[in-house]
Design a protein that fits this description.
27% helix, 12 strands, Rossmann fold, 7 helices
Length: 248
């Protein structure tokens, strides 16, 4: 059986994934601060919408939507160039879901999709469903899913499974950003590694007195993938992965 795949839009990454992420998979993108998780996620969404015609939603739980739009507009993304995020939203190519402000403040009043209580997973899922259906989204990013269970780690696996059920049920391929501490080698919550369909781990390590970025595909359900750790760079055009190099 041929596996339908979603291209990441990140140069070099799809070679590690045997052609891309299997469709409907929910991928845990795990890493510490400064490793490039948000940039990876935004590149997946922006390039997906403009190069592959696959609309996407971005659920922001840790940053103001205005900051997300500014960050997305900063890069001269590979293959698609600079973007005007507001125009992409007006064209229903991208939807930003505000799960950060809880609807408080004048700026929040201008947002189309607002989660007034991000701790209410049922409410969050309802807003996600609405946005996906309205823009016919095929991609999704939740940044970060760790925020949903930070104070209740015992619910981590269940929360990820609930979100995965909603996203996969609507035919969406998702990146769930997972926060870990700089020294932690886990994936961001008890049981989340089993609930997700795949894990991509980003790291920033000191090697010979120099900070170097690298990533490894820890698992990818239903697909073969590279078993090596590969270096990557963050450039003005976004992330580029070097599939023919290995970090020891």
């Amino acid at each position: 059986m041929v596996i339908e795949r979603i291209k990441t839009g990140i140069p070099g990454m799809d070679k590690l994934l045997n052609g891309g992420i299997p469709k409907r998979n929910a991928i845990l993108l795990s890493g510490g601060p400064g490793t490039g998780k948000t940039i990876f996620s935004q590149q997946f969404l922006i390039v997906g919408a403009l190069k592959y015609g696959e609309h996407g939603i971005y659920v922001t739980l840790e940053e103001h939507p205005a900051q997300i739009r500014r960050d997305m507009s900063t890069f001269n993304w590979y293959d698609v160039g600079k973007v005007d995020v507001r125009k992409l939203e007006e064209a229903n190519k991208i939807a930003i879901i505000d799960a950060f402000t809880a609807g408080i403040g004048k700026y929040a009043e201008k947002e189309k999709y607002v989660v007034t209580d991000p701790t209410d997973i049922t409410l969050l899922a309802d807003v996600i469903r609405e946005a996906i259906r309205e823009i016919n989204a095929q991609r999704a990013v939740i940044d970060s899913v760790s925020t949903l269970y930070l104070t209740k780690p015992s619910l981590a696996r269940n929360i990820v499974l609930q979100l995965k059920k909603v996203l996969a049920g609507l035919g969406v391929t998702a990146i769930l950003v997972s926060q870990v501490s700089a020294t932690e080698r886990g994936f961001g919550g008890p049981g989340v590694e089993h609930a997700s369909d795949g894990i991509i781990r980003l790291d920033l390590d000191e090697i010979n007195g120099e900070l170097r970025r690298s990533l490894i595909v820890w698992k990818m359900r239903g697909s073969s993938h590279s078993m090596r750790r590969h270096p990557f760079d963050i450039t003005e055009k976004g992330i580029i992965v070097y599939p023919d190099k290995t970090v020891k």
